[in-house]
Structures are given as structure tokens and as C-alpha cells.
Amino acid sequence: MQTFSLAERPDLLDAFWSIPGDWPTFMLQDPISDRAYEAAVEGFPQLHLVVMDGDVAVARLHAVPLAASIDSLPPRGWDWALQRAEWLVAKGGPPDLSTVSLIEARVAPDRRGEGLSGPLLVEARRRYAELGCRDLFGPVRPTRKALEPRSGADEYARRVRDDGLPQDPWLRVHARLGGKVVEVAPLSMTIPGTLAQWREWTGLPFDVEGAVEVPGALAPVHVDIANDHAVYVEPNVWVHHDLRASAS
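RE: above sequence
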């Protein structure tokens, strides 16, 4: 298997997009992501990686420049990073790559369990360090948080096993590679919709006022029947990778 950036191999753009995901339908309705995701890929091809097994794309990784520091990470996380990337693309000019944010690492569903995510993150760290990145962040979506949506995000993110590594599997992958949990991004992704839209996205009745648990959601969806809308606000976890050692 080989990993390429889209700057190296622009001909792999279709292969990059071909990798299917398995997020719940409602997760694909984020208005910021819907508008800015493609612009970020086109604007920063050097930060977008695709893993090829022969002629088949098996994994990909998205990242964007991030104008923030460890002391000023935005609470909006994913949405803020993508919105900022969209603005940088519109502005034009060479981006400052000293600080970069991961957006998504995706492995094809039929290749899960092969240990591809860790090596992909290792390769991203190496490549971004060569591009001048010193601080790599990520508004990480902890994979098992959806099993307990009413648990506090910060408390969940701080849980560790007996060996000191995070309890959550995806946070644990980052930790094994030197990533440090910094803080929660409590407003990382906001997905609004009418009650009819939420019924279509989830198959649930949405006929109860207040906090409603939805399969795949990391926190309950807030339902307002009188005003015919529901809003999902997803918390993510800011993780920091110091790439100074990688650069040297």
C-alpha cells in the first residue's frame, strides 16, 4: 500500500472521494461541512492524503490550516476549522501551515480492523512536519461516546485505562502516537433541522419535547416542538500532537 497527497497525485481525487463512510444520515447535514468540505480539499491538496492498495483507495485523511494555539482552541472545533479553511481558500495566497487541524480520517468499511488508521496518522504527522507544521490538532470524535450520550464530554474524554491510555479507542490511537487530550470542543458541530427533516434523517418520531437520544449521536438532540425544530450540538475532543521532534 502507498500513501499520496492530492498535491502529488491530483489524478487520485475521484479515488479519494470514492471511499464510503458509515456516519448516520443526520451527521451528513452539517451546513458548514456541506459548504466548506470540498473547498478545503481543493484548496489544500497537500494536506489531504489517500491510501491506495493497488488501484483501490482504502483510506483517506483530511486536514486544514488552523490559526489557533493550544491556549486558544475554538469551542466550535470542526465547524470553525472548516469555516476558517473556506475563508483562507477565498482569500488566496500561500497558507500558514505551522499549525494544522485534522478534520477526518476515514477507512473503507470493508478494510476496518486491519490497523490502517494508526499508520495513516503516523504518515500524516511525518508529512505535515516536512511542510513546516509544528502543532497538529484535531477535534476528535471519540468513537464510543455515542454509547453514553448523556455522559459529560469532558469527563468521558479524561477516562483512562489501568495502563494510563484513554478508554476511548480513537483517542487511544492518538495517545499512542504522542497526542495529548487538551480540552473539549463543546460546540464542534451544529446540525439544525425541522422536525420533519429529523424524522426523515433518523426514522424517529420526534414527538417529545427536550433532550432526545439518537443512535450515533454523542449527545442528545434538543427538540422544540412548539417551534418545529431540533438541534444537535456535537462535542468533540481537541487533541494536540507536537511535531517539533518529527521535524528534526
